[in-house]
Amino acid sequence: MTEYPHLFAPLDLGFVTLPNRVLMGSMHTGLEETRDFDRVAAFYAARARGGAALMVTGGMAPNREGAVMPGAAGLFTDEDIANHRVVTDRVHDEGGRIAMQILHAGRYAYSPECVAPSPIKSPISPFAPAELDEAGIEKQIADIATAAARAREAGYDGVEVMGSEGYFLNQFLVERTNKRTDHWGGSYENRMRLPVETLRRVRSAVGDDFIVIYRLSMIDLVPGGSSWDEVVILAQAIENAGATILNTGIGWHEARIPTIATSVPRGAFAWVTKKLMGSVDIPVITSNRINTPEVAEGVLADGCADMVSMARPFLADPAFVAKAKAGKAATIAPCIACNQACLDHTFEMKLASCLVNPQAAHETELVYAPTDQAKQIAIVGAGPAGLSTALVAAERGHTVTLFDRADQIGGQLNMAKMVPGKEEFFGLIEWYRTMLDELGVTVRLGVEASADILEGFDEVIVATGVLPRDPEIPAENGAHVVSYIDILTGREKAGDRVAVIGAGGIGFDVAEYLTHDGESPAENLELWLQEWGVTDPEEHRAGLEPEGAKPAPSARKVSLFQRKNEKPGKRLGKTTGWIHRASLAMKGVKMVGGVSYDRITAEGLYLRMQDGSKELFECDTVVLCAGQISDRSLADVLLAQGKEAHVIGGADVAAELDAKRAIDQGSRLAAVI
Ligand code: NAP
Ligand code: SF4
Which one of 387, 551, 636, 671 has the fewest CB atoms closer than 10 angstroms to its CB? Predict the structure, then answer.
């Protein structure tokens, strides 16, 4: 008997029965663009083996003008079809099923060739689209239908027609982007003609016994987006046009409301899908921030949907479903929704991976093969670098002892978990604890690992991390100057008026921590919806609260300073930096760049401004978040004694250290040791 009866109930689609209710949602990994289809196949085969009932590929372009960027993958030639067969065959060999997503980007295409219903540039693209004429529209429909037929030829079990997130089909639906006066614009009946006709033509191109998913934007989260009535009318029309399943899309890409970031509560939008239940007879999938079997089971049991879509959780752990089924949910590597190695990479034109699991999308290149020479390995430091090294080394068959002078594992992760909106780090640390146990790693906490203690090990790995940098700003008697560690560990309390020195990732985190009081909105959906101004789309078009965002008042008056004369927060994650900036701006945090620090007194922080003038910023507390230096105390002792040691993570290079680099470096070292 499974703990998750709804999750593991089969789903009968008429011509095929899915073994469970888990869809691996579409993710752009960049693998297809490498044209190494063995690598693409290895990625999907691992997830098929891991038990996803049905997987959806990253978006494939139906034609040049619809490609998200020049060179984006698609099924254009016989060779493309043969290449994709390599993938579908491998998935089928593993007992899985895979559908190809057809993604026409419309005005979101990063190309001067982009096309749209009307020539209106999107706020997130530098290119104004060309308005399609009648023949152009017919070509787009025909190309999407052809792509679907080619997908069938390539062995896919279905297609997903991307109709949400503000892409091409979505752009026809709303007056914001569709100003046409012909029969493709004007009334809602006209505006929905293109998506419905496209779906009808796709169905007729692929036959009856082929899965056709339509991803429908259920809450646009942009001004002038669809009303709830329109969503229901469209869903029913898409069902009548031949869709097998409806998937949920949440928010257009240009929406200024976070939809998948870690600060979004788990399952935050399942209630939107639930509103559609009963209005259509085909299965409906819900999506966004579902990252554990418990959450997935909960939304299904609650009648929010017939199936759940999880995408990034399958990067973190390809065996998500198999582990849940085996009653081993605690061993599922959690997706912490950080976007750091997946979406941020995609936007930086790099291959996607996963902060928690560097093997993701690197399956053929980063292999954890069993060792034929088992060693005694000592690892000093139980932060992300040391933890990942320990797990991979133990998995490969080495005997591992992990030391930390602290009385808990996690290192800097213990700081991150205290920040409102970063609660997922609790789960990540818990997972490490479970896995250390599962893999039989000896953990020695509260132990200062000296050179003597490390005698006798075959390999020593130093992952002692970082120490906060002291910016050496003169401080006078009575000044309250503390480090971010003092604040986030609760050792020190900040006053009502705070200056944060350093506007990097940690400065932003500390400002977030200091502005919140009481329950974190990430753990209270109602608070979160209110904070970002999201409301029931049945009450207000597109789910936008007319009165806007209503964040709780800031717990303190906080200002953030940096010396660089650039926009504070500019270097934060590509896909999450704007959320951090917006969130602090809503709390009234002042962000000042281009200053230098003169001294700190009981009155506050004396600054030298860009024009050379001096200014006193009155505050009760100054929090130092001025970056990190490597803690090399142990490494230097070992090296001075002529001993060999591998130095990794922050102890190796402190600059721009984050958990992604630490985990990647640790895992890669352990893979070859
Ligand atoms: P950081 O991002 O390098 O920022 C350090 C800040 O301190 C900068 O604003 C810098 O700005 C300032 N600074 C550096 N030297 C200084 C000095 N001598 N005097 C005064 N100010 C100085 O480092 P961090 O904030 O400590 O973060 C560490 C790492 O963790 C980073 O790689 C960061 O990306 C990562 N992290 C990421 C997240 C995330 O959400 N993804 C969250 C937390 C941390 P100026 O030099 O212009 O003054
Ligand atoms: Fe999840 Fe972060 Fe991994 Fe992306 S990088 S899959 S968001 S844990």
Answer: 636
